[in-house]
Write a structure and sequence with these properties.
This protein is mainly alpha-helical and 129 residues long. The chain has one domain.
């Protein structure tokens, strides 16, 4: 008969490593979004509230907050998320390459956008030519 191996606890020392890495990534993303919101003149705590943070992000990129309704439609929400990344990059004077970075490597590009001195908030995506 096979012995049951516990997943958590002392018998699995490797279970703590992925947990610690996940917590570090979570803290990094929370701090990055907090800084990004404050850089755009919005309250940093707004990045912690699940649906409200998307509403504030739409305000940051100078789009209608009524677009939040589209985030509840399957497949449309994915396209709108990509557009939101583009609008966010444009709002901080970045281009399409930075948009692709925000989409595919958010753990790198959100902190870069938040803590970089070259990324200055310009007032929303519609303020760009």
């Amino acid at each position: 008969m096979l012995n049951a191996v516990p997943i958590f606890g002392e018998a699995n020392p490797f279970g703590a490593i992925p947990l610690l890495i996940s917590l570090a990534v979570l803290v990094l993303m929370i701090v990055s979004l907090w800084k990004l919101f404050t850089k755009a003149g919005k309250p940093g705590w707004a990045s912690l509230i699940p649906i409200y943070n998307v509403i504030v992000m739409l305000e940051i990129v100078n789009k209608s907050v009524w677009l939040i309704i589209l985030f509840f439609i399957p497949f449309v929400n994915v396209i709108l998320s990509f557009l939101l990344c583009y609008w966010l990059a444009v709002s901080f004077s970045k281009g399409i390459g930075y948009t692709l970075g925000l989409i595919f490597l958010p753990i790198i590009f959100y902190p870069l956008l938040a803590f970089s001195e070259s990324a200055q908030y310009t007032g929303g995506a519609s303020a760009q030519p």
